[in-house]
Structure formats: C-alpha cells, structure tokens
Amino acid sequence: MRGVSLWCFVLLCASGVLAYSQDPQSEGKPIVAIEYEPAAQPLTARDLANSQPLKVGQPLRKEDISTAIDRLFATGRYEDIKVDVQPRGNGVVVRFITKTKLFIGHVGTHGKVSSPPNEGQVVNAAQLSLGQPFDPKDLDPAVKNIRNVFVRNGLYDATVTYRTEVAPQADQMNIIFEVHSGKRDHYAKPVISGDPKLPEKDIVKATHWHRFLLPGWHPVSETSTRDGIDGIHKKYQSKDRLMAKVDLKSMDHDPAKHTATGKIDITAGPTVKVKTVEAKVSKGKLKQYVPIYDEGAVDNDLLVEGARNLRDYFQNQGYYEAEIDFREKPVPGKDELDIEYLVSKGLRHKLVQVDIKGNKYFKTDELQDRIILRRASLLQFRHGRYSEPFKRQDEQAIANLYKSNGFIDVKVTSVVTDDYKGKVGDIAVTYNIDEGKQWFVAKLDVMGMTTPDASRVRQRYASLEGQPFSEFNIAADRKTTLDYYFSNGYPDAKFEFARADAGPYRVDLTYKITEGKQQFVRDVIVTGIKTTKERLIDNNMDLHAGDPLATIQMTNEQRKLYNLGVFAKVDAAIQNPDGDTQDKYVLYDIEEGSRYTMNFGFGATVAQFGPTANELAAPVGYSGFSPRFLLDVSRNNFLGIGQTLSFQGRISNLNQRAMINYYAPRFRNREGRNMTYTLLYDQSRDVLTFSSKREEASVQLSQTFTKAVTGIFRFSYRRVSTSSVIIPSLLVPQLLQPIRIGYLSANLVQDRRDNPADAHRGIYNLIDGGIATNYFGSQRTFLKVLGRQATYTPIRKTWVLARQLTFGSIFPFKVAPGFTAPNYIPLPERFFGGGADSSRAFPYNEAGPRDLGLPAGPGGTLTQPTGFPLGGNAVFFHQTELRFPFIGENIGGVLFHDMGNVYSSFSKISFRASQRNLEDFDYMVHAAGFGIRYKTPIGPIRLDLAYSINPPSFKGFKGTVQQLIQCNPNLPAGALPTFCTPTVQNTSHFQFFFSIGQAF
Fold first, then answer.
1. Which domain holds residue 707?
2. In terms of domains, do 559 and 677 share one?
C-alpha cells in the first residue's frame, strides 16, 4: 500500500509566520494514534496533555495541527517541531518530531585564577543567566566580557576558552570557562595630561599606586584603579576644586615589563568657595548640608538642595522664618568661583507649645507620639523642633491615621500663634482636626476565589463587614490575598476591587480575584557542588517536587543555604520562567566558599589592671597597657557536611588562650539544634588577686525552641589551678593544687527585646544551673545557680525605664575535712562582680569578700591582710536606669542606681546598707550616677560616672611582694618589720566607665 506522508515544517521566521503544507487526502480522517519522536519529551504528562489539542478518534484538521504546534512552542521547551502524518487503516497517525531546547545550567570556571577577580566575578562577567534558554551565540561575547574583567585587573596575558556539557536531567547546558590568568601587571608612573593645576607628584601620591615607604608599585586591580581615580578626586576636593574632572583614558600595557601605565586627563576647574552672607555657618556644617562636596560637582539642583538643607538647619536652631537663596559669582582675575548663600534668618523663635484639638476618636497622647514637632526642652531641643515641612508631614500623618480608621473626609489644619502668651519670639502650634463621619463596610463580596483556603484568607481581611472602611485596609487586604496566592504557586494572580454606596457612611465592597494557573515544582536541581555532600543540601531543602511553585519559598531556601556558612554564592532561578507550562524546574547553582580561612589580628587594651609583680599598694589595681595578638584558622565545610573545625589563639600579658572547636549545626538534622565540641587551654588574669589556668574539654548542645527561647546543655571536664597568687597567705596546698571539675549545666534564655544592643521595650530572662559531682570525676562537689531578669518599659515615646536583677549562689556539698564551706570552692569557680555591666559601685571584679589574712600562728600574730578580692559563693545585683533623650537626636542621657554585692555565702545575703567593721563585706553597696549614650551603627557608646554611696573599707598592705613574705606569722610581734602594719584602705567613691553598648 502506497503511504501518504504529510510533513509540517514549522519555521520561526523574522515575521513570526508559521509555514505549513497539508495533503488534502488526509483532511478529515480520524486520528488513530499520536506519537512523539523521541518518546521522552521535555514536558511532563500533564503539560503535554494541556498543550496538545489533538485527540485520538477525532478527525484530522489543519487548524488543529497548527494550534498544537503553537501551543507546544508556547511552552518554551522546543527548539524545532516537525509533524509527520501517515495513513494507518482507515485513519492517520500523527507523529511529532521534536528538538528539545536547552537551558543554561551551571556556569563555572576551571583553571588558575589569580584573585582579583574571584570566581564569582568571572562568572558574573559572562552574563549567562541561570535557567534562561541556551544560545551558542552568547558564548563568544561571554569570553570577551571575561577577558575584559581580567584586563581591568592587570591580567593582560589571561587566556579564556570554554567547554559545554549537556546535563543528564532538566535539559540543562553546563558551561565551564577554562581560565589561566597569567602574570599580573604592576602600576607604572601615570601620564598626566590636561590642565591639572596641581604638582604631578601630589597627583601620583593621591592614587596610592606606589608602595608606601618601599620601592616599586602595587599590582594592578580594578578596585585599586577605581580607588586611585577617586583619590585624585578627593585631592582636588580638599583643595576646594569641586568642579574638577578626572578621566582615566586608558591603561597601557607594556608586555616586556609587565607594567600598566594609566593615562589620566584632568581639568582642575576653578577653586570653589562656599560661604554664607548675613549668617555665620562653619565650613564643617556647609560640607554637611551642601551636597556639592559629597557629589564632587556643582550644578543648580545640588545648590537648591543645599539651600533647602540650610533652611531646615536654621529652622531647627529656632529661626522658623528663615529664607535661603544663593548666587554664583566668578571672581574676576582669579581662578575662583564664589557660591554665596544669602541667609535671612528673621526673628529667633522658641516652640513652647504643641496642641491638638478636635480629636475625639483618638487620645491626644496617641497623636502626639506620631508628630515630629517637639516643644522646647532644657537640653534636647533648646528652641524646639519646627519647620514647615515637618508641620506638613505631621498634618499628613494625622490625616492618614484617621483615614486608615474610616474617617475618609477628615481634614487636618494647623495654626501658628506668634508671641505666645505675650512673650516675643515664643510660638505655639495647634493642629485642628475635623474628623468628619466614620465610614464602615456594609458588605464584602469576594469573587473568583476558589481555593480551599478561601475562608482562612478572608478571616485575615481588614475590611470585613462592620469594620471601618479605608483605602489603607483595602491595600492591606490586597497584600494578604496576593501573598497567599504567590506563596501557593499562582504567579499571575490579580486583585481588583470595586465600591458602591450602601447608605449614609456605609460602603459595599467587592473583591475580584483572578487566580490564574497554579504552577508546581517539577523538580529541584542543584548544581555546582564539588566537595559538599548531597545530604547536606537535602537536609536543608524543604522545597520538593510536587510543591506549589512559590518565589517566596525559593528565596527562603536560598537564604537557608547561605546561612550554612559554607557557600560563597547561591543563585536561585526558575528554568524557562516565561514558558507556558504548569510544572517547572527550580534551579540552585552553588559556588562553594573557601575551605580554609585564616585571620590575624592585634590590638591593645588600656584599662585598670592588677598590681605589678613587686607592688601591692593598690588592691584596686593600676592603669596599664596590654598588647594582644590573635590567630584564627578554620576548616570550613569539614567532610563536606557543613561542619567547622577551627583553632583560635590569643596571646597577651593578661591572657593566653588556645582553643580547638568542632561545630556541627543542625545536629541530627533538626533546625536550630547545634552541637559544639571544644578543647581549651586558658591562662588569664581577669581577677587581680590571682591568675587562673584552665584545661578543659566540653560538649555543648544548643536548641532554639522558638524565636525568643533558646536552651543550652553543656558538660565540661576541666582542670583548674591558680598561679601567680599575689596573696602569700593563700599559698596553702588546698588552693594551689590543681583541681579537676566535672560540671553538667543547662541554661534557658528568653529574649523578647526589640533591639538587644539598645532595647526600648521587652524582657530578657536567663536561668543557668549546673552541678559538679564525684560521679562526673569532680574533686569538688557543688551546685551552682545563676538567674538574670531584665525588663524594658517605654515611657511615652522616647523615655525608657530599664531594670535588671542578677541573683546566683553556689551550694557546696560533701565538703572535705579541713575546709569550710566558703573556702571549699576553687577561686576560678567563684562569683566575681563589679564594673560597668554588674555594679558601677565597684571597679571591675572588685566586689565581695577580700583577703583578711590567716588566723594567728604559733607566734601569736596574724598573717598580713592584703585586701585583695577573693570572690564569693553568692551574688545579688539590681540595676535601674532611666534612659531619656539628652542633646539632639543622637545623644541620650541615663540616670542610674546600682545596688548589690558579691557575698561569702547564700545565707549571708543582706540588704543592710552599712558596713559593720573592716572585716564585713556581706552588705548591700549602693551607687548612683549619670551616663551619656551616643548612638552609633554598632550600638551606643557609653560613658558612666558613678558615685558609690557606701563603698567598703578594708585592711590592706603597702609594699612589695617580697616585703609581704617577710611578714612571717611565726615571728614574735616585736620582730616584725614596721611595713607589716596593716593600712586602712577603701574603694573610691567615684567610678568612671567607658565602653560600647548599654549596661544591660
């Protein structure tokens, strides 16, 4: 039987016309089969059925074939489609012969890359977007772009080629650029042209391309080149040549010397002098408010903005009627342009009253908190805060609040009263509110919402029946609706609304929802991983095949992968985003971070330290200088499972520390559960009395229960000892010998502060408890409990009442013979307190019991007391702060009261405020004071001045360590040197603290 073939060649021409051919004999015959070649199509069965209108049994029509081809092309997954129609029996077989389109998958590099540029910069330069259709024509421009990146970084000999690899799944084309950066050029002396008007050496120096104090030039990098040109700009700005133009014409490469010579064309322009007329403004203020300094250019828009800023500045100084104009004046015969701001300050005013009238629905305090204007106060706003723009913003803010609560017709006006109450210069501002009638929603109809969660979404609407009607509530409902649909795979969802009057001050609302087609995740494809185990990705990926396709969820998964801390870059994309398909691949392309990181650091501390080796005259210590050096080495993504092995070293004359840490996040694949194993050696002089040495092994499990609640469980086994003990009377075997401590502890933290660095509201609770027992191999047995509770209560808008209570105790048990309960606890395990963060009545760690000497020896004398702190077995501190605005916007003030102490034991905790004698330290010490807080991006800088009301007095020793040793308790009293006579000393009434961050 002679076969009849029909080929429909689909050609995507420039005009977009599809060409067909059709055998009239096949028209109208029934379709007996539909086949595909190859059998494995790039579409899922669901998408193929949705895109294929032809059905077995229906008659063959030309327009149906055309529609099928159009729909298949609309999916975006086909490069070419041919249709072959052949007779079979009484009908025809339709065979679709297709060529699958490929999409960009992993784009990476291979070879030697000398950073800069790093791998991410190289890949970004290729401009090949993950998930977009792959076109071989894009590869040569990508190579050219990468070459340009290398050239801009001085790598003129770099070679770049590429190879492509078809991925086995998801029809992806992976692209690997083979790069070899070659030798990097160094800068040569730049060639300066144009009209620079500055010495060439000053211009070259401003680039910082030459090594400082060393011969030779720095290697070329794009960043250094850009910074060099910026340095020249800054040089001209420092000379007031704000109109200077600096243009890097080229960087000429010398292949023989491997140098790059910059050719820089400079037009210096005139010297620009900015001054004010009829008012004095410092140059610093002019640079702050006139933006030509920041922009390095002079144009009319910037000068107008400067006039506006200066007007606001003078209005904030009390000149509420200030008017500012400006003029440009070239100076004849001089290379200079003068810009004069003409200031008409007018009379200086003081805003003494801000009133709100006509409000019934809202309380006055609620409205006051929303306005910017502030009446004059003693320190923060000496003349008040007032300006016309601020007043208009306040009117709008009040009106918006009313409108959001259904008062559509509200009107807010303001009246300024001059010479308020007859005093010249005083003004008052009154906001008059005409509330109008409140509008309500009579009925709400929602159309087009077919999702099963429709009732749950409606419950979250603000514009329900009987609720106030406002455009703000409708906007909130729109966001609620679209957030739901976008989160559930409806990318084309639309929200429209209509309103109709339903009687006096009542509105019928209609929400029309167009859901669109729901899309689903066909599969999640992760590329780019080399050393990372797949299970690490799987354990942190909650997006799976069959889930609704939501960009919000994709972004959340991307953030989770970043939070692992082992990836330098995580790109997320939808493959073929514009294709008309219901199932889509979600792609994550990963660039792994550096496996090793190393940090060096050095610093110094200037503070009050302990006494010197030969001087014991001051138990509260001396001011001193302590340099410190730091080394951190980390092996990231250890074993490819996202865990970290690190070493940390600290060396100073106060502290020597070495720590090996193994950190395993998401322990047993539980979110918020982390395990840490630690080996630690630490020798420090944190307390003046002694140096402590600690050798410790510990394991810690932390669990985040909620956003605000975290728990930590920890077991540590450590060997602690004291060394360099300054108090010879403590040189007894029980306290000098090393002690092994096995300690099991747990703590629970609840943190609901709005800002941990500078809290204005919220609470913070901590409970920490642990036990050391023989069962854990401990040579000392005790129970230790510490609790901390802080509250932050706002008072009106800007004042905060903050308080913190700290309470703790150590309960020794099974006390060994020869010890008292207080002395049974080793020195490094005791509580020490005092300082900026616990009690400002004391210097750091100076609270609590002190050395009083030993009981009488055989000779009948006492061991010489030194008065140095020994720590205690109980602690009680309470701090109260009233935080308030002080000067301007950034400086705040604090009035504080601290009370408490470190006590010898729990039973000795006392609220008594007086010291009974020179041997009594178990009483409550109080301090009051004033502090200043200066706001910075990293937290407030803190200065506290405290007056200790009842500081302790004690018997001390003035002399050296060698002299103290000569005070032998076995010698007769008459044989003791005169320097052995104890001296009465005391902690100073005045304390001074400077640090970063609030006290608590």
1. 601-996
2. no
> Which residues are CB-contacts of 204 (< 8 A; sequence separation ≥ 6)?
189, 190, 192, 210
**100, 121, 136 - which closes a domain:** 100
b/e per residue 776-814 (b: at least 16 CB within 10 A):
bebbbbbebbbebebbbebeeeeebebbbbbbbbbbbee
Partners of 877 in the beta sheet? 806, 900
> pLDDT-based confidence at 907, cuts 50/70/90?
very high
Least confident of 397-406, 648-657, 874-883, 957-966: 957-966
**pTM over 0.85, yes/no:** no
Q: How far is CA 754 from the centre of its chain?
A: 15
- CATH code for the domain in which residue 562 is found: 3.10.20.310
Q: What is the mean pLDDT of the chain?
A: 87
Same domain, 413 and 539: no
**Per residue in 719-747, pLDDT tens?**
887 765 555 444 444 555 788 999 999 99
Rounded to whole angstroms, the Cα distance separating 209 from 262 reads 10
Give the H/E segment covering residue 122. helix 119-126
The total domain count for the chain is: 8
Instruction: Please check whether residue 914 lies inside any domain of the structure.
Output: yes
Q: Where are the beta strands (DSSP E) in 467-559?
A: 494-501, 506-514, 520-527
316-334 pLDDT per residue, tens: 888 988 999 999 988 888 8
Residue type, 824: Y
Q: Are 262 and 281 in a shared domain?
A: no
* Nearest in space to 621 (alpha carbons), one of 726, 721, 694: 726
Please check whether residue 521 is in contact with residue 533, taking contact to mean a CB–CB distance below 8 angstroms.
Answer: no
Q: How far apart are CA 553 and CA 821, in angstroms?
A: 58
Count other Cβ atoms within 10 Å, centred on residue 254: 12
The answer to the question of residue 1 being in a domain is no
